[in-house]
Amino acid sequence: MSKTPTLRLDRLLANLGYGSRREMQALAKNGRVTFDGEPFRDADKHVPVTRDLPDRLKLDGKPIDPPPGIALMLHKPLGTTCSHKEAGPLVYDLLPTRWRMREPAISTIGRLDKETSGLLLLTDDGALLHRVISPKSHVAKRYRVTLDRPLRGDEEATFAEGGLMLDGETKPLLPAVMETLSPTEALLTLSEGRYHQVRRMFAAMGNHVTALHRESVGGLTLPADLEAGTFRLMTDADIAAVFA
């Protein structure tokens, strides 16, 4: 039977971005932290880091943020960048401010470019991140594509065959599944994730992508009620769906 992990209260709260360890010491001493309804004044003491911790540990009467090991699904809006450092609006700006101070840090699982919207996953769990992006996991991504000009008619067959060479690369693409929705709109499902792959695939066919939206990652589809710019914590079922 595995032992329940524990962490000093001041370190736990500091790692969750609430402030410095010295500040957390002061909060506890002043009775602002409770555990199972009772004041937790000694910030040097350890608390069990379990998934139900937000129900047991409260700061100023409010549940603390989830402990490390979280995964999020975010509806990425246009104009935001999947970066910690680039200028301009970042996807991390859509999270609570203190979440940018968490340790371990929350990172995107893969990236969507600035002009692509849709389902974006984030986590502070390195093992989960690598499992999703690993080619061995075969996690497919489905995109809704809007094009500048009508389709030629041979795109579905060309993409399905595999072997298409992108400009500047020496390794051919794996087969991809395309479903034509209209003369200028299609769904494209990829089993790999190269730089600007969808845009470059259609460019190779003489067309230009004017809008790109990711609808799903694996078996997880962007919820219809998750508005652009908002996020929610993923459940175990959501994570399982990614690999379904």
Helix content: 10-25%
Question: From the alpha-carbon coordinates, what is the Rg to the nearest angstrom?
Answer: 22 Å
What is the total domain count? 3
Query: Helix/strand/pairing class, anyone?
Result: alpha+beta
Outline the structure in words.
The protein is of the alpha+beta class and 244 residues long. It folds into three domains: 6-63, RNA-binding S4 domain (Structural Genomics Hypothetical 15.5 Kd Protein In mrcA-pckA Intergenic Region, Chain A), CATH 3.10.290.10; 71-135 and 229-234, Pseudouridine synthase I, catalytic domain, N-terminal subdomain (Alpha-Beta Plaits); 140-217, Alpha-Beta Plaits (2-Layer Sandwich), CATH 3.30.70.1560. It is built from seven helices and 15 strands. Strand 8 (107-108) and strand 9 form a beta hairpin. Helix 1 crosses helix 2 (21-29). The chain is elongated, with a radius of gyration of 22 Å. The two termini are 28 Å apart.
